[in-house]
## 1
Amino acid sequence: MDTQLFSAHEAALAGSLIREGHLVVFPTETVYGLGADVFNEDACKHIFTAKGRPQDNPLITHIHDREQLHALVTALPPGSQDLIRCFWPGPLTLVLPKRPDVSAVVSASLDTIGVRMPSHPVARAFLRSAGTPVAAPSANRSGKPSPTNFAMACEAMNGRVAGILDGGACESGLESTVIAWDGKRWNILRPGSVTREQLAEVIEDLLEDSILPQSDKLAVRSPGTRHPHYKPRGKVILFTDPADLTDDNLLSAGIGAENIMAVLCLSSVEAEVRRRTKARQVYSYADWKALARNLYSDFHRCDIEECTHILVHTPIESTGIAEALQNRLKKAAEYTI
Ligand code: TXA
Ligand code: MG
C-alpha cells in the first residue's frame, strides 16, 4: 500500500482520509495513534490487521469536542463532568457505558467504550477535519513500544496505512491514564501522566482505596493489560541504586563482555553508572518526566544499535509520573528486577 506522509500543517488533509474510510496514523500528546472512523466497522477491523493485534483488546475512541460524546455513550457516571472539565483535552481516557450502535469491533464486545479528547494541536486539527470520532490504539506493531515520534511511526506503519501525519515528538511519551467506573468508584486501569494525585483532587471521595494494583480482576476488565507490551528486542533490566551495578550483579543478570549494553538513567547518577559499567550508550535525563518522555524512543534506538541488554534506572517511590513509569518498565522487564 502507498502511504502518504503529511506535515503538521496538512492535518486537515489527513483527517479527510478518515472520512473516506482509510487508516491514518496521527500524533497525540501521549503517543502516535492508528486511527479509523469509529462508525466504519470495516475500517476498524483493518486496525487489528495493520497492528497484528488480538481482537480481544478494545480501542480508545478520540473526540474533538464534547458533542461527539453523545454519539458514543449512554450515560456519564458520577464525577465524569468534573473529570472532563479538569482533564480534557488531555491524556485521560474515561471508560464509559457504550451506545449499542457503536460496533463490538471497537469495544472487543464489552458494553463500555474508552474515550479521550487529545490536547495536541495537530491531533485537534486532524480530528476536527475527520468530523467523526476516531478509534485508535497506539500505532506500534503489537507487542512493540508505542511510537513517540514521526520516524518511529513511519517505521511501524509505512506501507500499512493510507497516511501518516507528522506532529513531531510526543510531549508525554507514555500512553494516557485509563480510568473506569465500576458502579461505585473510579478505578485506574492504566496509570499515565494524569497522576493518581491529580485525579484524587477532583474525585477525592471516590478514589480512596478503590484503586487496585494490576490484578487478575483488572486484567479481565482491561483486556489490554493481559497482552505483552512496551518491549524492545534487548533484555530490559531495572535498577534503583547504581551501587548495585557491580561486576558480579551484571554477570548474574547474564551480561558478559560479549554483550552490548545501554543504560537509561537520571543525570544525577550518570557518572557512577559510567564508572561501574562498560555501557556502549548512556542516555541520561534531568528527571523522571524526561526519562518517561524519551523511554520508547530510547528503546527504539537501542534496537537499532542491536543492544542485547538495556539497564533502566527506576524510581522507588510511586508518586506522580513515577507510577506510570514503573508500570511500563515492569512490563518491559517482564516483572524481573
Ligand atoms: O495515549 C493513549 O491512550 C494512546 C493514544 C493513541 O491515544 N492510545 C492507546 O491505545 O494507548 P491502546 O489501544 O494501545 O491502549 C488502550 C488501553 C488498553 O489497555 C485497553 O485494554 C484499554 O485501554 N481499554 C480500551 N477500551 C477499554 C474498555 N472499554 N474497557 C477497559 N479497558 C479499555
Ligand atoms: Mg498500545
## 2
Amino acid sequence: MKLRVFATKEEGGLYGASLVERVVEGISHPVLGLATGATVTPLYAALARLHRSGLDLSQCTTINLDEYIGLPPDHPQSYHHFMDEHLFRHVNIPPTQVHIPDGMAADLTAECSRYDAIVTRQRIDFQLLGIGVNGHIGFNEPSHILQSNTHVVTLRQETLLHNAKFFEDYAEVPKLAITMGVQAILQAKQIVLMAFGAEKAPVIARAFFGDVRTDVPASILQLHQDVTLILDAQSARELP
Ligand code: GLP
C-alpha cells in the first residue's frame, strides 16, 4: 500500500488527478471506476482543469460504483446528477461510454445483472474510492458477508445520517441503493482511496492497519496489490 498525506484536500485531489492522467495517457482505451461524495470533488475539479489544458478523455470508459434507488437521474442528489455536475459536463467523455447503475429500474435484479455484465466485460484500470465513516466502499456496507456482485443494499443508519447533509431533510435520504460488489473493485488494476478530515481518521486506521473484516468493508483492500491512500493530516492522525 502506498500512503500519501497532503496538507490540503485540494493538493490531494491534484495528486489523484495526476494519477488519472498517467492512466489516461498510458492506455489506449482506459476504463475508470468512479466514485461520488464530497471527498472526490477536488480530484474531479483538478481533472477538469487538466482537460482544459489539453488532456483528452474521449477514449475513456467510466463505470460508477453506485446509485440511490428511487432518485431520477436529474434529481439534485442522485449520483447521475453529481457526476454530471462535478465531472462529465466539464470534460469530453462521450455519454455512450459512461455507466452508472439505474436506480429507477423497474426490475432491480435485471439491472444488477446488466451492470455486472458491464463490469465483467471490461476490467477497470483505475478505481477511485471514497470511504464511508463506517468503512463502506461504494455502498458495500458493514455486514457478516461482503457481496461479490452488483446488488441492492439497505443503507445503514450511520450512512443515512452522514449523507443527510446533502438533503434538505433526513426523511428524504433514500434507504436503498444499488452498488457494485467487492469483486469488480478488487479486480481493478489500480485502486486509489481518498479520505479527508478528522471524522475519517478512526476508520482509516481500522481499515488499513487492523484486521481484514467484513464489518469494515474497506479493509478488504489490504488484499489488493496496488492501493494508494490519499489522506490529509486529519484523516491520517490515528495511523500507527
Ligand atoms: C457515499 C458513497 C461512497 C463514498 C461516501 C463518502 O456513501 N456511496 O462511495 O465513499 O459517500 O462520502 P463523502 O466523501 O461525502 O464523505
